[in-house]
């Protein structure tokens, strides 16, 4: 560790001592305890900005301010970023980036495709391969995951001795693309469209949907769709060369990836802590209601903020695990963040009662809403979302369909439809986007350009998958969503 790092650590310890110490002090000289805490954050921040840097230490400032009850994390994020959604995306993108730089993707996939069950036959192998990419896609951005996974998928094709143009290889490539895109709707962890949908619902109604509630609907729905996809591939597409897949050949991949080092273990531990803070509150709601209320009030952006702070502080071999310049330039999808910020405000404006668009839209669609039962309305919005997301931006689809759904559904008699479940389903539907390159530009274009699949296959079987998704969302996801949201 160099002198510069030692000096930075001294300043960090001093700053943390000032911040934490001021939080524990009672009010002095007419100043309240909260005032003492704010002054502690102020002086602690000055110490870090002068002695360390102005970038990542600012995250500690936000974390310290959010812990002060009078401000809270929602108020702190709203003041710093405009809303919690933007803060959530930035911190989550930053948190996931170090994981994508490790061998986790390869190691995780190998563990899935080389177990005893996966080696029983070709379709077992395909099932576990798709399960692996879906699992990783639950918390890694689809674009990042697909780009990181493609070189390893090429290795898998080589080991299995599959040839381009074969149906079995086409099934694996299409299945990988479909499942990675699908996984981006199964959770709101680092995924833009579910996060936006939840944000629109919260802004319009004042009610929130936490990570556990969304996953309780999204993950079972995604699993059902993956099972149906595999059945379609097996019994409708029927690859005649699937017997050429020899799963035991994948055993050659074992030993090609080194064991997880200390750095990767710390990254995985911080990721686990982040997910735990998202999910745990809902699990202890009935047992420890006070703890649930406290943790739940931290907002969804606080756990990834804490995770980022930890990765910036922890060091391995004299270097901090996360480098701010690198993660800010390569890890954060700033285009998505800026569009989310603009689209969130646009959605709030579209549903603003004083503007009148909601009233006009409700009146215009009144004949439709009167003639259609609730399930008909749900089918209408799911069809609209899935069709549009296959031909345009996922973010645009989420913005437009969510805004209209909120305008129409909130005008219905109270209790007739679960608005939160429907809007969350719009965020899920935005991930069913593999028919055309425009649907998910990075995933679809790279898949088609690889030569292992083609435009026609993606359009036809992506269309079949889209139809299945519309039906599953309308008749399975919605009833499930009403139980948890």
Automatic annotation (TrEMBL):
Cellular localization per UniProt: Membrane
Keyword presence, Nuclease: no
Superkingdom to which the source organism belongs: Bacteria
Stretches that traverse the bilayer: 36-56, 63-96, 123-150, 171-194, 214-237, 266-284, 296-315, 327-348, 368-387, 394-413, 419-437, 458-480
MF terms in GO: transmembrane transporter activity
InterPro entries according to UniProt: SLC13A/DASS
One Gene Ontology CC term in the entry: plasma membrane
Keywords attached to this entry: Membrane, Transmembrane, Transmembrane helix
Topology in membrane: Multi-pass membrane protein
Major location category of this protein: membrane
Family matches, as PANTHER family: SOLUTE CARRIER FAMILY 13 MEMBER (PTHR10283)
Name of the protein in question: Sodium:sulfate symporter transmembrane region
């Amino acid at each position: 560790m160099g002198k510069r790092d030692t000096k930075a650590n001294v300043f960090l310890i001093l700053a943390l001592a000032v911040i934490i110490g001021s939080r524990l002090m009672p009010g002095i000289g007419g100043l309240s305890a909260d005032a003492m805490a704010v002054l502690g954050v102020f002086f602690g921040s000055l110490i870090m900005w002068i002695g360390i840097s102005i970038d990542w230490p600012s995250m500690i400032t936000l974390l310290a301010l959010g812990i002060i009850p009078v401000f809270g994390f929602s108020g702190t994020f709203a003041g710093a970023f405009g809303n919690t959604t933007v803060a959530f995306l930035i911190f989550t993108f930053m948190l996931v980036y170090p994981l994508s730089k490790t061998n986790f993707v390869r190691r995780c996939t190998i563990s899935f495709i080389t177990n005893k069950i996966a080696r029983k036959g070709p379709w077992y192998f395909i099932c576990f391969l798709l399960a692996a990419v879906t699992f990783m896609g639950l918390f890694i951005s689809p674009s990042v995951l697909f780009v990181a996974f493609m070189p390893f998928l090429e290795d898998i094709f080589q080991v299995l001795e599959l040839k381009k143009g074969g149906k079995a290889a086409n099934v694996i490539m299409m299945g990988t693309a479909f499942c990675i895109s699908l996984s981006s709707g199964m959770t709101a962890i680092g995924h833009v469209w579910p996060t936006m949908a939840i944000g629109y619902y919260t802004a319009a109604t004042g009610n929130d949907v936490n990570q556990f509630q969304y996953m309780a609907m999204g993950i079972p729905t995604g699993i059902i769709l993956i099972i149906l996809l595999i059945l379609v591939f097996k019994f409708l597409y029927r690859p005649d060369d699937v017997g050429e897949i020899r799963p035991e050949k994948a055993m050659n991949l074992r030993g090609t990836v080194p064991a997880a080092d200390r750095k990767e273990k710390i990254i995985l531990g911080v990721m686990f802590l982040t997910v735990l803070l998202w999910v745990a509150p809902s699990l202890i709601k009935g047992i420890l209601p006070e703890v649930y209320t406290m943790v739940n009030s931290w907002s969804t952006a606080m756990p990834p903020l804490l995770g980022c702070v930890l990765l910036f502080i922890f060091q391995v071999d004299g270097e901090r695990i996360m480098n701010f310049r690198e993660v800010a330039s390569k890890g954060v999808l700033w285009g998505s963040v800026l569009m989310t910020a603009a689209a969130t405000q646009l959605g709030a404006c579209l549903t603003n009662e004083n503007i009148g668009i909601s009233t006009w839209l409700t009146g215009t669609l009144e004949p439709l809403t009167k003639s259609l039962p609730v399930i008909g309305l749900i089918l209408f919005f799911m069809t609209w979302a899935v069709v549009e997301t296959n031909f345009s931006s996922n973010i645009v689809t989420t913005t437009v369909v969510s805004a209209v759904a909120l305008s129409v559904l909130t005008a219905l008699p109270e209790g007739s439809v679960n608005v939160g479940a429907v809007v969350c389903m719009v965020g899920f539907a935005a991930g069913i986007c593999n028919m055309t390159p425009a649907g998910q530009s990075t995933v679809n274009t790279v898949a088609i350009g690889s030569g292992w699949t083609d435009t026609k296959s993606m359009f036809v079987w992506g269309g079949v998958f889209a139809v299945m998704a519309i039906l599953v969302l309308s008749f399975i996801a919605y009833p499930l969503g009403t139980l948890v949201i």
